[in-house]
Amino acid sequence: EVQLLESGGGLVQPGGSLRLSCAASGFTFSSFAMSWVRQAPGKGLEWVSAMGGSGRTTYYADSVKGRFTISRDNSKNTLYLQMNSLRAEDTAVYYCAKFRGKLWSDYYFDYWGPGTLVTVSS
Amino acid sequence: NFMLTQPHSVSESPGKTVTISCTGSSGSIASNYVQWYQQRPGSAPTTVVYEDNQRPSGVPDRFSGSIDTSSNSASLTISGLKTEDEADYYCQSYDSSNLWVFGGGTKLTVL
């Protein structure tokens, strides 16, 4: 059974940093691209970042480019999101999601974690 | 910027059929697959349709997806509505500039 579990969320001041983790199990982690998707309170889903299975390929939404860094440790079956220079508009539940598909353009999110809440406020 | 537009809300009675639309802002909706996700209150999204019209195992055949190139839209149809289908539904596709794009979501009320 595929399981994804995020951790590391919390309250942080504007301009601060936070690192999210996503522990994965139930599948061969290194074989699959992974992603982060966020949802601001009462709002819709927004894709944030993605990384290929080997870790060589990364993608970022314009809204976080230059501030967030995605990484993974395949020996620990864990995905990370380092978030720097946080803003109030980054306040959201952050979901870790597993990709499925043949090409990047075909990829979709087939499993999601329960999410972790990040609140950016003074 | 490529966008997917969904109605804000729809409502229907139990046992009836409802269709939720998802309209692409530019290009052909058929150029990339469309997925549909269900999100119940307080829960993470789950996939109900992938690759336009495929259902993951465990999703009942009451859920179906389709593409209409004439209106440049995708649709999620839920037949035999149950109260448990009440949720937010999001369409999602891919764009070469914005990558993975979600629609704004549709709140389905089953009353």
In short:
The complex is a heterodimer of chains A (122) and B (111). Chain A has no helices and eleven strands.
Feature tags:
heterodimer, A: 122 residues, mainly beta, seven-stranded mixed β-sheet, four-stranded antiparallel β-sheet, 0% helix, B: 111 residues, six-stranded mixed β-sheet
Word description of this protein:
The complex is a heterodimer of chains A (122) and B (111). By secondary structure, chain A is mainly beta. Helix content of chain A is 0%, strand content 52%. Chain A is built from no helices and 11 strands. In chain A, strands 2, 4, 5, 6, 9, 10 and 11 form a 7-stranded mixed beta sheet that branches. Chain A has a 4-stranded antiparallel beta sheet with strand order 1-3-8-7, with no helix packed on it. The model of chain A has no long low-confidence stretch (mean pLDDT 97). Chain B has 111 residues and is an all-beta fold. Chain B contains no helices and 10 strands. Chain B is globular and about 40 Å long. The model of chain B has no long low-confidence stretch (mean pLDDT 96).
Which range does the strand content of chain A fall in?
over 45%
Cα end-to-end separation of chain B: 36 Å
- Biggest sheet of chain B: strands, sense, closure? 6 strands, mixed
Stretches with pLDDT under 50, minimum 5 residues of chain A: none
Shape verdict of chain A: globular
Span between N and C termini of chain A? 40 Å
What shape does the CA trace of chain B take? globular
Sequence of secondary-structure elements of chain B = EEEEEEEEEE
**Percent in strands of chain B:** over 45%
Q: What is the helical fraction of chain A, as a range of percent?
A: under 10%
Radius of gyration of chain B: 13 Å
Identify low-pLDDT runs of chain B. none
Tell me roughly what share of residues is in helical segments of chain B.
under 10%
Largest interface: A-B, 23 and 25 residues
Structural class of chain B: mainly beta
Counting helices, strands and paired strands, the structural category of chain A is mainly beta
Mean pLDDT across the residues of chain B is 96
Number of strands of chain A: 11
Largest sheet of chain A: 7 strands, mixed
Order of helices and strands of chain A: EEEEEEEEEEE
- Quickly count the helices of chain A: 0
